[in-house]
């Protein structure tokens, strides 16, 4: 695949993941401020190549990303990926369940932080409050 094809695939995948919902500056903008070429390489690898593999669906990839970012307690990245998860159609109840699943591994502070970030993303998207039966 040519470099130009990977760039096109990267733009298309990034638009699908991050093109709607909350508005925030993705890490790419910060990377680019330091090193434009390296930022493009990172973006093409992560979004153009890794996120374009079909071993996992985009929904599965986003749920895995949300679980890992919540466990790492990386709030800004978690916010970005919760939004992306919703953009690709992840089930809201399953996302909440993933965050509750942190309890035995990351502790209740990680659960509470992840749920608060999730609530904030839903609020920014105009999707909060939700009916109790929609999430659990």
Description:
The chain is mainly α and 136 residues long. The chain has a single domain (3-130), classed as Up-down Bundle (AhpD-like). It contains 9 helices and no strands. It has helices spanning 3-18, 27-34, 36-49, 58-72, 75-87, 92-100, 103-106, 108-124, 132-135. Helix 4 (58-72) runs parallel beside helix 6. The chain is globular, with a radius of gyration of 16 Å. The mean pLDDT is 94.
Write a concise keyword list for the protein shown above.
single chain, 136 residues, mainly alpha, AhpD-like, 9 helices, 74% helix
Strand content: under 5%
CATH architecture heading: Up-down Bundle
Helical stretch tally = 9
Task: Using the coordinates above, name the CATH class.
Answer: Mainly Alpha
**Helix coverage percent of residues?**
over 70%
Helix and strand composition category: mainly alpha
Order of helices and strands: HHHHHHHHH
Low-confidence runs of at least 5 consecutive residues: none
Specify the biggest β-sheet.
Answer: none
What value does the Rg take, in angstroms?
A: 16 Å
Produce a short descriptive summary.
The chain has 136 residues and is mainly α. It has nine helices and no strands.
